[in-house]
Each structure stands twice: as C-alpha cells, then as structure tokens.
Amino acid sequence: MMTGTTFIAFIGVVLGVAIGATGIGGVLLVPILTLALGIEVKRAIAAALFSYLPSTAVAVVLYARRGSMPWRQVWPLCAAAVPAAWLGARLAHDAPGELLEAAVGVLLAAGGVYALRTPRQPGAARAELAPCVLIGLGSGTGFISALTGAGGAFVLLPVLLLLDVPVLSAIGMGQAIAIPIAGLASVANLTAGLVDLRLAAVLGVTLAIGIALGTPIAHALPQAKLRRLLGTVVLMAGAAMLVRGAVHAFAGG
C-alpha cells in the first residue's frame, strides 16, 4: 500500500511525463493534492508553484537543447508575466478557498474540452509573434497561473496553438514562462507561510524526473493520442472539482 509520500512521488513522475510530452499536466497537480490527499487548496497551490521552479528549469534546458525554445519570443513573454504573477499570488491569499477551487475546476474543464478537440490542420506556421501580443499573453498567463496554481503552459499553450505557433515551440514557451510565474508567486507564498517545503521538494524532484522522461516523447511521437488521454483525465478532474465545490456550497447553505 502506498504511503502519502510514495503516492505524491508517483503522481509527480506521471504528471512530469505528461508535462514533458504535451506541455500540459501540471494543472492536475492542485486537484490531486486537494481531492486525493485533502490538502487545503491555498497550500496545494503554493506547493505546486514552488515545485515548478526546479522541474520547469529542467524542461527549459531539455527543450532548448533540442532547438525548441524560441528565445526571442520567450524574453518579452516572461518579462510581462512577472508583475502579473505577483498580483495573482497576492489576490490568491485573500480569495476564498471555495472560489479558488471553482476557478481551478473551470480551468480543468476548459482545458479538457480543448485537448479533446481535433486540432485544426496546420497552415503556415507563424515565425514570430508581435511584441504587443507577447506582452498581453505573458500578463494574462502570469495572473491566471499564479492565482490558480495551474501552470503557465496550461493557460498559454492553447492560445499559442490558435495563433499557429509550431507545437514544440509552443510547449517550450509554456515551460519557460512557468519559471518567473512560479518564482514571483513563491516569494509571496513563502512570505505568507503557505509553502510546505517538504511537499514542494518531493514534487519538484519527481516532476523533473518525469519531464526528463517525457520530453523525448514530444520530439518523437505524434500528439493525438496523448492529447486525447490527457484531455479525458483533465475533464474528469475538473468535473470532480466542480462537483465537490457545489456539494460544499449546498452543505454550507
């Protein structure tokens, strides 16, 4: 029978593989911590964000080594995310836990529906996004990710694909933006005493291991089956989170 730490490590590796292979997976971390382990949502978000620092750094290095990191677009994207992530983390401290759970549930459901859709046929891939577009994307991603702990790639990747950014470059940009978001949000969370360092350390190490295993998959296999599987799991997790929130709301009322 798995202990709590063993279960967390197992989940970290599995989600790390998903992140490395598809760019999306970290969004499942908060609901698993809250639904399966009963960790309070604000502390789950804080631990998840802190764990993204080492794990996404590994992802950035691996994607860059394979030529999938468009650095000229990454820098303005990440710079715009910094102040927005700080604001999102500060607002998360004051927001009711039930509201955060509902926000995560909506994000999960939306992401699941998106992943289950058949991607449109790629046309002429856009070589580079305009600076104003990158700044807007960075700000929105930073705010939403820090507020919910969902991970930058989950918010950013669907938009980049709709803008015809090549899939591997889009995944790489999603990994890169997670670093400033996680860093700024974690400073605020540490100041507020919300970070469980032991939990975050286990998650950070195991996510990094999974990402190292999953990154070669992204560069070697088609994404269709991975998208469908991940979309199903994400949609189910979102539904479970929303149902739990509704039950709590009715019980409280």
Give a short summary of the structure:
79% of the residues lie in helices and 0% in strands.
What attributes characterize this protein structure?
single chain; 253 residues; mainly alpha; globular
How would you summarize the topology of this molecule?
Layout: H1 4-22, H2 29-35, H3 41-65, H4 71-94, H5 97-116, H6 131-148, H7 152-162, H8 167-191, H9 197-218, H10 224-252
Model description:
This protein has one domain (4-252). The protein has helices spanning 4-22, 29-35, 41-65, 71-94, 97-116, 131-148, 152-162, 167-191, 197-218, 224-252. The protein is mostly helical and 253 residues long. It is globular, with a radius of gyration of 17 Å. The protein starts with a helix and ends with a helix. It is built from ten helices and no strands. The mean pLDDT is 82.
Relative helix content: over 70%
Shape: globular
SSE order: HHHHHHHHHH
Largest sheet, strands/sense/barrel:
none
* Low-pLDDT segments: none
Average pLDDT:
82
Number of domains: 1
Gyration radius, in Å: 17 Å
C-alpha termini separation = 38 Å
Q: Which range does the strand content fall in?
A: under 5%
Structural class: mainly alpha
Give me the number of helical elements: 10
Number of extended strands: 0
